[in-house]
Amino acid sequence: MNILKKVRPDYMFASALIVIPAFIFQDSVLLKWMHVFIFMSVSVMAGKRIRIIPNIIMLAGITAANLLTPVGEVMFHVMKFPVTKGALYSGLEKTALLTGMIYISRIALSGNFRISRNRRNMISDVFYYFERLMEGDRSPSGKIFSIRRERILHPAFISELIRMTDRKLLEMENSISNNDSGRISEELREYCVALSWIFLFIFAASNWLIYSIRFI
Amino acid sequence: MMKLMTLTTEEKTTAAVLAALCMFLSVIEYLIPKPLPFMRLGLANLPVLVSLAVLPGRGTVVLVILKIMGQGLVNGTLFSYIFIFSAAGSIASCAVMISVYTLFSGNISMMGISVLGALAGNMVQITAARYIIFGNAAYLIAPPFLVIGTVSALVLGYLAEEFIEKSEWFESRKRAVSEGKRAEGEGV
Description:
Shape of chain B: globular
Largest interface: A-B, 52 and 50 residues
Oligomer: heterodimer
Number of helices of chain B: 7
Mean pLDDT of chain B: 84
Number of strands of chain A: 2
């Protein structure tokens, strides 16, 4: 399913920037949700997980919060509580905007998005140290950390966390080394660039097409 | 203004390492089960508290900016409202913590600084939520949000005190920062 894993991160970033105005300036709630559906699909194709429950909680929470202030005509009642058209519309629009921006951010920063340390600045230093801190904590099972959940729930975890953090910082300072890996073949590079252009065109065109529907 | 934000090499290194630690701790926090989506300990704020004791105020400001940018990039929330909330809360909390630490240095514990910072950050986030997403209903979630935030801040303040007291890395960094400042002051 991760067919977009080979799309270059800079193209993903650029495509997200191209699409953002079409999404933000979309007036129709229905069409806005269509954008969100596309963002979610692309996010899945780029290998990201979609967590349904938090999205549903967010949708319900924001819509309910907006319904507390009645606006416009009453559509129906839920246990004597009036559900108004304007408030429902506003709640659904805000949820679409929030959800969509989360997924577009994920698309923009997916893949191996990284800042080169050759251009020395503090942000690249932060990412360099972050990668050093993460080193050695990936277990063969694919879990991000070798820390087990049972240990996290143990009362002694806090002092263990302090010890662990201190040890990791000391280890990192002692063993900072340059490590350049991940060179890819020319053939694969050409394939990735072609795939990236195709993705950028389809993603941008589909979203701007949805945006232009309102003018038809 | 640029002069005001100038840091020594050791201060820059310390700020960058602490910002990386913010991102590392936010990944660890991801593993801790939460009963509700907004209930979190805020472990990523631990390095900000620690920085107060090792960096000058402008160093903490730089750290907070790096933390906001780094977390936005790693979590993929750079263009979302979550980023605005995070940035607004972090900046407000940073301003309060630096002011309190500078004004009452030595007379207030890390737990006190942490609680005041959290209250400022949470109140700014509630105000932002009021205008951006929830409308007046934001004030309904304010009391539990503030209570949870205060309890988390107390725990975090305790953790920061423990870290400052026991960490060998902190000791060595503190020494390096003061030596670096002295060396650069002498023009070495």
